[in-house]
Amino acid sequence: MVQFFSKRRLKIAEQIIIVIFFAVLIPMTVSGIIINNINQQSNRAQLRSAAVMIANIVSEEIDVFTHSINNELSQIIATLEYYNSPEQEQNYLDTIIKNLSFYKELAVVNESELTKYEIYSIQDDYAVFNKPMKNGKYLVAVLDVKNLQKNLFKTLTNDKRQIYVLAGKDLIASINYTKEDYDNSIKQLPDKPEENIPVIYGNIKNQPLVYIKKTEPDVLVIVNTTEDVKKHTIDYNRDKIILSIIITMLTVFFVVGLYTYYLYINIRQLFKAIIAISKGNYERRIRLLTNIFTPFEIVFLGNEFNRMVNQIHKSYIQLKKKNRELKQVNEFRSNMIDTVSHEFRTPLTSIQGYTSRLLRQDIEIDEETKIKSLKTIKRQAERLKRMIEDLLVIPDIEGARLNFDIRPIPINSVIENSMMLIRNDNEKEIINNIKNCSIEIKADNDRIEQVFVNLIENAIKYSRGDAPIILDYEINENKLVVSVKNDYDIIPREKLKTLFDKFTRVDDSTTRTTRGTGLGLFIVKGLVEAMGGEIRLYSNEEYGFCVKIFMPIAEENN
Known about the structure:
By secondary structure, the protein is an alpha+beta fold. It has helices at 2-7, 12-80, 86-99, 145-152, 179-187, 227-278, 296-359, 367-398, 411-421, 445-462, 493-497, 520-530; strands at residues 103-109, 126-132, 138-144, 162-167, 170-175, 198-201, 209-215, 218-224, 406-410, 430-432, 440-444, 469-476, 479-486, 534-538, 545-552. It is built from twelve helices and 15 strands. The strands form four sheets. Strands 5-4-8-7-6 form a five-stranded antiparallel beta sheet, sandwiched between helices. The protein has a five-stranded mixed beta sheet with strand order 10-12-13-15-14. Helix 9 crosses helix 10 (445-462) and helix 10 (445-462) runs antiparallel to helix 12. The longest helix has 69 residues, at 12-80.
């Protein structure tokens, strides 16, 4: 048993059952046995005392009855002395019988005639008393036993015990008589009974027999404690004690079982929540079944656990966010390295090639070729410069550390300067509908030119065929809306939303046909919003692809 418990941890319900067994069941069982034993001893003594008391009561009733009969017979004898003839005596005795119903017969007889009255016995329900007279005769009184019993047992009519009154070997009175019990009581009498004192005898436990052997008159009183009396006194009380112990145990088991049930449910909730947390489910909460049986510690533990899980969940969300940001940083780093290594290689290769060509001494290069080579070197250097500026401005945009010199600037001059800086190798047609617009916007001159250079170059790169690039404007409330449109396939809405992300291009890595870092729209959005403007992208059958810049109008134009 000890080895079993040492290898296996018991559950709370099992521990409570063991505690109840050793702390409640065994003590209550032992207490019940002790209480029942004490109760039986007390009831046994009570049965003995009651049997002795009843024997004494019957004995006293016999004394009273005998004394009363003797007095009555003495009075009758004294009265008979005044009558001179037997006829007068008999008339007097008949009058007494008529008035006193418990006398069956009264007669004056000689001693030799006494034997004929011995025919009356218990079977005839009669008893015979006689008393000598002065003239040598005897006054004989035959009494109705039923009347005798009524007088002897008048205080014991509700008692369940058996009482027998014997004169010699004849039963002259009884109550609750049964032949079997009567014979058994007589059989257990000692051969020489003690006289004039109550004696307990018999060999049946909890059913004491008591006798009193009287000498005057010569009668024997027997009191038998019946099975019914024993059951009512001992068995009934024992059953009540056992029943009360069982009810108490059941009540204890019910209350403890109910308490254990609710406690077990709540602890199971704790287990499930802990297992869920261990498996990474940080949204699991403990839902306790609270009632009068729920301990304060469990409620406190549940609340603190839920509070802890909330903190863990918040930290987990923040950690996921940081992981996403870290992943984006890693992607940004990888993309930047790939993009820079790819995009920088072309202008650097071009610059290196034309520079090496100009430095060669073994060939003679004409002036036109030199100028053409130097222009190519200049153009590639400017392209490299713009890519470097784009990369350098990204940290400022992300960290909101951009410094601007905001002032009113005519939009037409901004567009003209931007068009001078763009690279249009394919000589795409650009329709500038803004050249006659003199409205001034509030912006930083260099930064707003950088915005439109990026937008126009993007439009040139992604415009189909000979379709022109259209620059247009409109006024929306207190903002000037500048549109840059080019003909292109309709871009899905989901893709359109991602074009402002870093290193995102309209043509992905598998369909890429144009050069670029994929930072243009990200930089444009950051610069425009930092200057108080707004940028929107559109793609449909009307526009193809359209970028709209919303810039605040200078106050003097309002």
